Inverse folding.
């Protein structure tokens, strides 16, 4: 059965994919839909949704909430993807080396991941961003630093299991080099769990980014959902829309990515599902 | 003959849509009398196990389901009884023993508790009486030190002891029918012989009807009263053991029996006294390392001071039971694992301690064929690439390597179209051919084959053995052939070395060793070969093509 048909069998995964597609479209079309800078004060402050030409209302300074959400989608997705890519790359390299060679290298890498994992990841991310200057770059670094250990442990487990399989031993007998065995023989066989974990990590990264922006540790030059919620927090009772709509945006995006991740899991590991 | 205790009429078990065939079990009828052993023989996928599961009401529903037919047992039709009644029958009146006793026993319960559970579910007995009964059962199956056995956990027992404990559980309620699903397949040959004689003795004692499922004609010859042969879900032949074994009527039975390797060693080839490979006092110890916190442990001496010599053009067999160190020795020879001590001389050069780069020129000369055709090919690589990779790594150009891969596919009897396919598209026997092609693509002089046929059905096994014999002659290969099966060793090897607990206890020309074994362990092994008194009749000289179409190499 083709990959797509197995994926499509999971209805909620399709729903997730649809939501995600809408979010991506909004992110791509943000400059067309809302050509103005989302930070600009464009009308009466605290306008309710639907009034004064504001689709989703305006905040305490008169900034358009809808414009913020559209431009924020861009930042959220960008940071989510970038941070995940860096974390997966780091995790695959270190986990792969640890799992393949074993011995003291394995011990070393695993003790390092444990060190990272003993610190609550969100607090660690706050610490890192606070040390560096808040910027997209530092947020990406902070999120990748707190999320690579999980990937490394996963990849290490897969490599440890696969390195003793007979097809890998057959490569040793031919005299194949380590790098080639790792990249061409073992890695393709553990891509599915990496893809699934990676897709779920995008959602976590978006959540961490929102949390950081909410606490005022976001990049001050770009709008983001977390920043919008943080800005609207004081007027939650008088102007509910300022917090609510960015919140829904986060909820839907994270949910959509999780659903897609589940769908990928079903499609890539069919045996796991039938059990 | 007395009235049958179990009678199966026209049983149909349906497979899910899109499966290879519509019925797993189709129009199967047979009767089992008390005090008889009926062997159901067939290759993998023939439906022999599913018939047993249908009797026990243990079909993996809803994918695989009962469709029609009757299973008559003491005036009842087991396909129509209530689940509660079925539970009472199961384990009480009909019980079952499985292939793998380690997974069939609960690892966190003592043996005594597990036997007690069976008795408690089926009879109201006081605690003391149940215990007495459990003790009696453990004595019955000849487990040593019964009191201690009742307190033991499954992991404290050996494989054979676990199977004895399973039999004790199965016999707890004096069942009328005992279903044994490949009960000795996971056991070593000497243990297998003991378990088989135990089953036969207990069956005599209790007048039990035994339905014995197996793929091994040797086992059939040892214990069967009657034999049913299954193919593609149907029974093709059912008759007394004597007639099925010695005068089979159905062509499929004939091809199966023809594929059973005989125990008479083949004539040794005249061999030049030209030593190609020499193993000198090689040792390998596993474990024994020092953990971060733990104290250093002794470790296991997997290979202990082994000496071997392989002459050019010769096939040297290494036989032994599981844990004897034969696979470790094979891996030492091809330098897949490092030896602790000793020399491995290839044409006089010691390669045991060579580094990676200096080992490379010898890699092509020493190649290996693995046991498990499903694990030994990368599932994500195309077959052509798997074969061509070796020559490419050793410096051939891509075009030369690809041409050689196609040539090798042809040599091992696969279609050239196999080149662009993935391993999962092939059956076990075909995959093993790919494994052989991969090894041959480097033009080796020595082929180390580690149990290359033990994961295959008997007719496919015969084909792969025939392939190995052919390429050995065509390419003038020398072979180290690891096997636990003395029948296979007799067919393939010029000389045989017997290993036990890491040591080579005896070696010599196959025929001489089989006739006049000197070491008691070798004699014990030879005496334990199932069906050693039965000599397969020469019903039909082995025909490769005929067997292939009959056995359906496509099922995989």
């Amino acid at each position: 059965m083709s990959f797509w048909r197995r994926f499509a069998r999971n209805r909620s995964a399709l729903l997730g994919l649809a939501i995600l597609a809408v979010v991506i479209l909004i992110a791509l079309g943000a400059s067309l839909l809302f050509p103005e800078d989302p930070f600009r004060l464009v009308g009466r402050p605290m306008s309710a949704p639907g009034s004064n030409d504001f689709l989703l209302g305006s905040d305490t300074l008169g900034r358009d909430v809808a414009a913020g959400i559209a431009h924020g989608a861009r930042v959220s997705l960008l940071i989510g993807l970038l941070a995940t890519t860096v974390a997966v790359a780091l995790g695959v390299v270190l986990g792969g080396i640890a799992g393949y060679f074993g011995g003291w290298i394995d011990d070393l890498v695993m003790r390092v991941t444990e060190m990272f994992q003993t610190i609550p990841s969100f607090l660690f991310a706050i610490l890192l961003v606070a040390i560096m200057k808040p910027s997209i770059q530092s947020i990406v670094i902070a999120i990748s630093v707190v999320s690579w250990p999980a990937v490394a442990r996963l990849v290490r487990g897969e490599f440890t299991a696969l390195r003793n399989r007979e097809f890998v031993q057959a490569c040793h007998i031919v005299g194949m080099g380590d790098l080639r065995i790792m990249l061409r023989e073992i890695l393709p066989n553990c891509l599915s769990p990496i893809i699934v974990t990676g897709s779920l990590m995008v959602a976590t990264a978006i959540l961490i980014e929102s949390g950081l922006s909410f606490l005022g540790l976001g990049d001050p030059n770009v709008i983001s959902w977390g920043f919008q919620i943080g800005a609207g927090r004081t007027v939650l009772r008088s102007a509910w829309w300022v917090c609510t709509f960015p919140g829904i945006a986060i909820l839907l995006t994270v949910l959509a990515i999780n659903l897609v991740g589940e769908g990928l899991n079903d499609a890539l590991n069919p045996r796991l599902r039938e059990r | 003959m007395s009235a049958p205790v179990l009678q199966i009429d026209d049983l149909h078990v349906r497979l899910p849509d899109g499966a290879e065939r519509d019925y797993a079990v189709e129009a199967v009828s047979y009767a089992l009398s008390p005090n008889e052993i009926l062997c159901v023989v067939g290759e993998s996928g023939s439906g022999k196990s599913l018939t047993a599961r249908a009797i026990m009401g243990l079909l993996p529903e809803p994918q695989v389901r009962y469709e029609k037919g009757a299973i008559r047992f003491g005036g009842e039709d087991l396909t129509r009884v209530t689940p509660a009644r079925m539970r009472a029958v199961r384990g009480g009146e009909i019980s079952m023993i499985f292939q793998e006793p380690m997974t069939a026993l609960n690892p966190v319960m003592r043996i005594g508790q597990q036997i007690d559970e069976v008795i408690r579910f089926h009879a109201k007995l006081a605690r003391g009486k149940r215990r007495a009964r459990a003790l009696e059962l453990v004595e019955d199956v000849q487990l040593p030190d019964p009191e201690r056995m009742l307190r033991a956990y499954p992991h404290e027992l050996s494989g054979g002891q676990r199977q004895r404990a399973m039999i004790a559980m199965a016999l707890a309620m004096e069942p009328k029918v005992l279903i044994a699903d490949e009960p000795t397949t996971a056991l070593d040959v000497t243990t297998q012989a003991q378990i088989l004689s135990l089953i036969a003795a207990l069956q005599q004692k209790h007048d039990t009807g035994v339905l014995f499922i197996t793929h091994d004609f040797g086992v059939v010859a040892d214990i069967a009263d009657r034999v049913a042969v299954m193919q593609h879900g149907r029974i093709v032949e059912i008759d007394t053991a004597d007639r099925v074994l010695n005068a089979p009527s159905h062509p499929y039975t004939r091809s199966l029996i023809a594929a059973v390797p005989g125990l008479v060693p083949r004539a040794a080839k005249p061999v030049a006294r030209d030593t190609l490979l020499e193993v000198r006092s090689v040792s390998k110890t596993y474990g024994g390392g020092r953990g971060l916190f733990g104290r250093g442990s002794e470790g296991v001496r997997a290979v202990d001071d082994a000496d071997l010599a392989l002459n050019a053009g010769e096939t040297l067999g290494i036989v032994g039971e599981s844990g004897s160190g034969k696979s470790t020795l094979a891996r030492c020879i091809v330098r897949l694992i490092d030896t602790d001590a000793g020399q491995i001389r290839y044409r006089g050069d010691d390669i045991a301690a060579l580094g990676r780069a200096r080992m490379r020129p010898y890699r092509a000369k020493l190649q290996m064929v693995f046991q498990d055709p499903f694990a030994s090919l990368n599932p994500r690589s195309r077959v052509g690439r798997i074969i061509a990779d070796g020559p490419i790594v050793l410096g051939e150009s891509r075009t030369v390597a690809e041409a050689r891969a196609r040539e090798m596919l042809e040599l091992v009897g696969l279609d050239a179209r196999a080149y662009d396919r993935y391993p999962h598209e092939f059956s076990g026997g075909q995959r093993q051919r790919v494994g052989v092609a991969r090894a041959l693509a480097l033009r080796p002089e020595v082929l180390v084959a580690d149990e290359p046929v033990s994961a295959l059905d008997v007719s496919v096994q015969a084909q792969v053995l025939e392939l190995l014999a052919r390429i050995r002659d065509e390419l003038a290969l020398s072979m180290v052939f690891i096997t636990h099966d003395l029948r296979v060793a007799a067919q393939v090897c010029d000389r045989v070395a017997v290993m036990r607990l890491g040591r080579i206890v005896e070696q010599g020309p196959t025929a001489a060793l089989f006739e006049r074994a000197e070491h008691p362990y070798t004699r014990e092994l030879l005496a334990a070969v199932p069906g050693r008194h039965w000599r397969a009749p020469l019903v039909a000289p082995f025909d490769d093509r005929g067997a292939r179409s009959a056995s359906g190499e496509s099922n995989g």
Q: What stands out?
A: Residues 1-93+212-258 of chain B form a domain with the Rossmann fold fold (CATH 3.40.50.300).
